[in-house]
Amino acid sequence: MNLVRRISVAALLLGGLLSSCVPVDDLALTREAEQGFWRFAEMAESGRFGNDVEDINIGITAKQVQIELVRKDGTRQRFMLSAKRSLRGPSRYFDIVPGEGATDADVERIGEALDEVFARNPFVLPAVRKPRDAGEALDPVERQPYDSWRGRLRVIEWRMMAPASLAYAVGVIVALVLGLIATFLALWLSEPPYR
């Protein structure tokens, strides 16, 4: 009976790890992200994306950002940014979709600049955003996402998703598989208790 309990606990933990993911559509930009995009605009104005960039327009919504670089000759390059869905791409935290007038080299430069500006992920789950002032008391309706078991589960899921790199993801998967193999070997090679 003890062996069955151990195997079921290991299977439940592994199933929970494998099934815990947050859909990217649930993520929203933080208020602090606006400051990052101000720094990004300063980079554009200082010539980071070419000396012929005359102006930059940035439109921020909760889930997407549209960037438009206006060149001196009147041409415009547009980029649509959203939360990262894949491990590939020039930016750690953003998927960059080039619009009209944008090249792959432009996307690479935008991605490098975004990684310089954002040291941490600018996306969070809307239910777990921090209040504006750390000392500010939350009323029961606002506190509910923090107090409920679903809110806590979403925080755990958020911390488990979006690895920083492919090497990190592969390392975590290999460590989990090795731990699971070691657990099953220990259970298989152990002697049953005497009755």
Quick overview of this protein structure:
It contains six helices and six strands, in the order αβαββββαβααα. The chain has helices at residues 2-19, 33-45, 104-117, 140-147, 149-160, 166-189, and strands spanning 28-29, 53-60, 64-71, 76-83, 94-98, 123-124.
Give an overview of the whole structure:
- The protein has 195 residues and is an alpha+beta fold.
- The protein has two domains: 2-26 and 128-189, no CATH class; 28-124, no CATH class.
- Helices cover 46% and strands 17% of the residues.
- The chain contains six helices and six strands, in the order H-E-H-E-E-E-E-H-E-H-H-H.
- The protein has helices spanning 2-19, 33-45, 104-117, 140-147, 149-160, 166-189; strands at 28-29, 53-60, 64-71, 76-83, 94-98, 123-124.
- It has a four-stranded antiparallel β-sheet, covered by helices on one side. A two-stranded antiparallel ribbon has the order 1-6.
- The longest helix has 24 residues, at 166-189.
- The protein starts with a helix and ends in a 6-residue tail after the last helix.
What secondary-structure arrangement, pairings included, does this model have?
Layout: H1 2-19, E1 28-29, H2 33-45, E2 53-60, E3 64-71, E4 76-83, E5 94-98, H3 104-117, E6 123-124, H4 140-147, H5 149-160, H6 166-189
Antiparallel strand pairs: 1-6, 2-3, 3-4, 4-5
Helix pairs in contact: 1-6, 4-5
